[in-house]
Amino acid sequence: MPRKKPFSNKQKKKQLQSKRERKRGETGSGPSSRNASLERGDRQSDTSDSETTDIRRINQQPGGRDGGHDPNRFRLHFEKESKEEVEKRKRAAMENELKSVTDKDLETDICDIYPTEKGLTFPRRPSWNYEMTRESLLRKEEKSYREYVDDLQSRNPPGSLSHFEHNLETWRQLWRVLEMSDIILLIVDIRHPVLQLPPDLYHYITGALQKQVVLVLNKVDLSPPPLVIAWKHYLTSQFPHMEIVCFTSHPGQPYSTILQKKRMRKKVHWSVAGGPLDILKACQGITAGKVDLSSWERKIKSDAVAELADGGGESSVVMEHQSDSAMEMSSLSQELYKDGVLTLGCIGFPNVGKSSVINSLVGRKVVSVSRTPGHTKYFQTYYLTPTVKLCDCPGLVFPSRVDKQLQILAGIYPVSQLQEPYSSVGYLCERTPFLSVLKLKHPSLSDNEPLSQEPKWTAWDVCEAWAERRGYKTAKAARNDAYRAANSLLRLAIDGRLCLCLRPPGYSCLRERWENHPDLPEIMALQGRTNMAEASDEEGESSSEGEEEERDRDADDDDDDEDDEGFKRPPKRDTEQPSGFTINMYDVLKENECE
Ligand SMILES: Nc1nc2c(ncn2[C@@H]2O[C@H](COP(=O)(O)OP(=O)(O)OP(=O)(O)O)[C@@H](O)[C@H]2O)c(=O)[nH]1
């Protein structure tokens, strides 16, 4: 028998590390692997057939073992930023003093994000017929896509467009979902809905496709109720032919708005989510009796009863994997409600909670949920009941003129793969009362030094101070690890624990109206709470630093494991009058939460 090769501890550690990364399906999430991830990302093979510019491919997955399915086919492709650009932003984050923006500056008009004259459309599928071969169809689609990108770039000077999806394969998925669905559930995050609602998409669905859109304002648990109402009114005024439904998959979970020291272990009870009934009602209004939705209504009722009785229903759901050929030749003019079945297509940007909405509608977990954007790779359909089919689609980033920093904070980019996170931290800090919330000590101040005047803060100072507070040190020199601190702050923001919410135009002037709106109790009931102070009332057991460290390291991992852990039901509360809305809406973190 041949002698075993000696295997050092270092090699073993490396082997385990790469195994873990393979399992996670991404290239590095810790500080030690960040450079490696960039190098690997560039070297690995890519299957994109749509490269038109210098593209960065994100979320590289290990190749399929059977050699058939290619897991990289649908990963995110964004335009690469030049080294100089990245360096410039990093320098600015180190040098520029942070300046708080005014309330008014948080008001965002959709026309500033999607200005009509800039041609911010999305790629369309070119026409086809059954005489065409598969190859000629694919070639035609590629050509048309290249022309689309050229046109977009000719109308928008370099650097003016935000990140958007450059992977044609993912756009193909959207085409199929739009073609096969009867009603489109367009899901957006209530914290920044105008970022994720491309007017061109709305006009295409309601115009060319002649289909109806139900806008799902998701994650309402993360927003002050008056703001939810204000957004709903603003969006109705902009898109009058669209049903708008508020939704949350995490009702009554204090985790949503509080920066907590402990690791909040939670099990999501999908069937207690707020909003499925409203989606049903919107669909009943649209279908107007043309399809029998009584089985769906019965399902919602029986799930609620089962939830009360034993904590969850166990209805079975038939899942269909779509084959490539089924994908390629579906007709644009497919008849509505074919075979008496309503098909609902769930579309939206990455991380807005599409999979969570599907799980909530089904009443249990059928789709994997993750805080890593771009997690949903391939569209699948699920029979909710014999007459209602749900169709999940990978998240898509449409071209817009929004700040890239805000895009990062909206969770479209995997944080662990950011080359330069500091400017996004700066963007966040200028729009939130970060000093009082995070309780930071300026890195230039020594322990007992009296404060002669308020020190000036840069984004870099914030990261250093947070690293000091959290004990994040670089491995070699044991200096404060600003990169890791920046990642940690961005994750807190994306998860909604350090909450940045945009506001519709005119919000400040009409504030009183929204704060006294008759719909407030309804929104708060949906959120599972009765007043704003409630979020600050929640207390939990403290946990060790080690647990928090663990959370940081694994912050881009799936949420799915949480399903197996203990769940504390939100306490039931008496109805109270809404109060406290005049306080700064960011004042959601308690005094001692960063201790
Ligand atoms: N607070 C809060 N978090 C939510 C809600 N819905 C989803 N999330 C979280 O948002 C993150 C993304 O959720 P997903 O359902 O995976 O989002 P997705 O749109 O399918 O994401 P992609 O796969 O990237 O397209 C996860 O961390 C969820 O736990 C919600 O209603 N409230």
The side-by-side strand order for the widest beta sheet comes to 5-4-3-7-9-8-6
Report the CATH C-level class of the domain at 100-259 and 266-392.
Alpha Beta
Oligomeric state = single chain
CATH topology heading of the domain at 100-259 and 266-392: Rossmann fold
SSE string:
HHEEHHHHEHEHEHHEHEHEEHHHHHHHHH
Low-confidence stretches: 25-52, 254-265, 535-558, 560-595
How many individual helices? 21
Summed over residues and divided by their number, the pLDDT gives a mean of: 78
Q: Bin the strand percentage.
A: 5-15%
What is the SS-derived class? alpha/beta
Number of strands: 9
Radius of gyration: 24 Å
Bound molecules: guanosine-5'-triphosphate
CATH architecture of the domain at 100-259 and 266-392: 3-Layer(aba) Sandwich
Choose one word for the global shape. globular
Largest sheet: 7 strands, mixed
Secondary-structure blueprint of this entry?
Blueprint: H1 9-24, H2 34-43, E1 55-57, E2 77-79, H3 83-95, H4 110-113, H5 134-155, H6 168-180, E3 183-189, H7 199-208, E4 212-218, H8 225-238, E5 242-246, H9 276-287, H10 294-310, E6 318-321, H11 324-328, E7 342-348, H12 354-362, E8 380-385, E9 388-392, H13 404-409, H14 422-429, H15 434-438, H16 459-470, H17 482-495, H18 511-515, H19 520-527, H20 534-537, H21 545-553
Parallel strand pairs: 3-4, 3-7, 4-5, 7-9
Antiparallel strand pairs: 1-2, 6-8, 8-9
Helix pairs in contact: 14-16, 14-17, 16-17
